[in-house]
């Protein structure tokens, strides 16, 4: 995984740091720990800042691991639009950390972080209301990676 950010020296040069993506087990444990920490704080118990930072670091690394695949999907969608001659805008986003924590702690308390499916997403907004363009894009994008050929004959 590559984490990009601005250099601390006041310049605008970007730094790249390769960090290993956390294991599925570590992600699962971090999600449970986020929930446990929130519960303990709600009960008025002390949760060490170091513990919170460590757990949130795993969550942030897991979140960041979606960046490269997300960028790849974004570029593929742009390429599909271009090759099909369809006008549209492609955007992408990673779920914000605060929203991930909220989802784990309040909205879906039993959710396993490693199974959270909406951490990253892409959106295509077509320039027109053409259902034909929408269908062509859908056929092109969904057929390509999941194409199944019949072997019976």
Please, could you describe this protein's structure?
- The protein has five helices and four strands.
- α1 packs across α2 (49-64) and α3 crosses α5 (131-143).
- It has helices at 24-42, 49-64, 67-84, 97-107, 131-143; strands at 2-6, 14-18, 88-94, 120-126.
- Helices cover 50% and strands 16% of the residues.
- Mean pLDDT is 79; it is low at 1-16 and 145-153.
- A hairpin with a 7-residue loop joins β1 (2-6) and β2 (14-18).
- The chain is of the alpha+beta class and 153 residues long.
- The strands form two sheets. It has a two-stranded antiparallel ribbon with strand order 1-2.
Looking at this protein, list some descriptive labels:
single chain; two-stranded antiparallel sheet; 5 helices; elongated; 153 residues; alpha+beta; disordered N terminus
What is the C-alpha radius of gyration, as a whole number of Å? 20 Å
Distance between the termini: 45 Å
Query: Major β-sheet, in short?
Result: 2 strands, antiparallel
Strand segment count: 4
Classify the helix fraction into a percent range: 40-55%
List the total number of helices. Answer: 5
What oligomeric state do the depicted chains represent?
single chain
Query: Could you state the order of secondary-structure elements as H and E?
Result: EEHHHEHEH
């Amino acid at each position: 995984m590559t984490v990009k950010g601005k250099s601390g020296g006041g310049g605008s040069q970007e730094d790249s740091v390769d960090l290993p993506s956390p294991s599925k087990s570590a992600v699962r444990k971090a999600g449970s720990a986020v929930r446990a920490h929130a519960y303990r704080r709600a009960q008025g118990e002390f949760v060490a800042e170091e513990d919170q930072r460590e757990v949130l670091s795993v969550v942030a690394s897991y979140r960041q691991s979606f960046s490269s695949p997300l960028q790849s999907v974004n570029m593929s969608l742009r390429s599909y639009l271009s090759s099909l001659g369809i006008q549209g805008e492609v955007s992408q986003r990673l779920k914000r950390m605060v929203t991930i924590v909220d989802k784990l702690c309040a909205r879906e308390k039993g959710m396993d972080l490693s199974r959270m499916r909406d951490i990253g997403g892409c959106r295509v907004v077509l320039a027109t209301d053409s259902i034909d363009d929408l269908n062509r894009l859908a056929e092109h994008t969904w057929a390509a990676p999941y194409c199944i050929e019949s072997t019976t004959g």
